[in-house]
Design brief:
- The complex is a heterodimer of chains A (144) and B (179).
- Chain A is mainly α and 144 residues long.
- Chain A contains five helices and no strands.
- The longest helix of chain A has 58 residues.
- The N and C termini of chain A lie far apart (102 Å).
- By secondary structure, chain B is mainly alpha-helical.
- Chain B has a domain of 68 residues.
- In chain B, 46% of the residues lie in helices and 0% in strands.
- Chain B contains six helices and no strands.
- The longest helix of chain B has 35 residues.
- Chain B is elongated, with a radius of gyration of 28 Å.
- The two termini of chain B are 31 Å apart.
- The chains are: A mainly alpha (144), B mainly alpha (179).
- Chains A and B meet through α2, α3, α4 and α5 of A and α3, α4 and α5 of B.
Chain lengths: 144, 179
Amino acid sequence: MSSSATGTSRCAACRNQRRRCPTDCIFSPHFPSTDPERFDAVHRIYGASKVAKMLEEIPPEMRGPAANALHFEAKCRIRDPVYGCVGIISTLNEEIRDTGTELAKLRARVAFLASGAQERQLGQDYTIVDDHWTEQQQIGNVVL
Amino acid sequence: MKKHGPRSGSSCAACKMLKRRCTSNCVFAPYFRSDEPKKFAKVHKVFGASNVSKILFEVPEEQREETVNSLAYEAEARLSDPVYGCLGAITLLQRKMAELQHDLAIARARLARCNAAGSMMPSFNEGVAPADFGGLPFTSFTGPTTNTTTTTTESFGQGGFPDFGSPAMSDFDQYPYRY
């Protein structure tokens, strides 16, 4: 992956656009010639000039993540022209809702079982105390 | 409900913005009404009018409204977050899902312990003291908790997003929640 000082090694974008790849090409760090599909995808959905404008508006250190995000979204849109990556967001929202519901039910069940167990435990304590007092009364009677 | 009402001869938002005549078979007109100029402006800024029309021509007519809505959503996300766009929202949701799965596992384990304790509960005739219950969590259990850590947007400011530099993140096939 290299931008071209001599013009012999162009980035994927400049190859696609059939132009010379300058040393300060905004695409070359993020669209290497070794991965032409990457630029093809973003070019197909956004167009080269839109991508260049978007990258120019972002600090240089964030352009890598931005290019990755654009590639991801472009691929989503190519696979699903109707919903693109918004389809993934919808799916995730549904799954979160369903999982949240399941979690709430489980927690309610645990709380119910725990409160029932505590009541049984309290019931047992009283029973044991009753038996103990009964025993003490018998002992007292014997002693006396 | 049809989005496109009677054509009054006024241009749609797209043709107004592009300063061209809005024909009767304009592909944008049903979905970018003249009273919603911002919707087209955002989509045009991110995707460009020609790319939008290409996408619309690729999909069946009955799905074009959904397509336009999803494009508008994506454009809005990209304009709000020029670095991560929609991928930022996906990351947040994935993290939320992971937290919920974690909480679910804990709740299942607790339920299993409750069920096991319930089946082991001795009858009162045996006179077993409470201490013999083996340290079951009944006395310390305080009921449903709301201990799920909420992922706030503050913790996911632009600098806090993971670095998507690795090839795996940009490979859609690696997306874990796609069924």
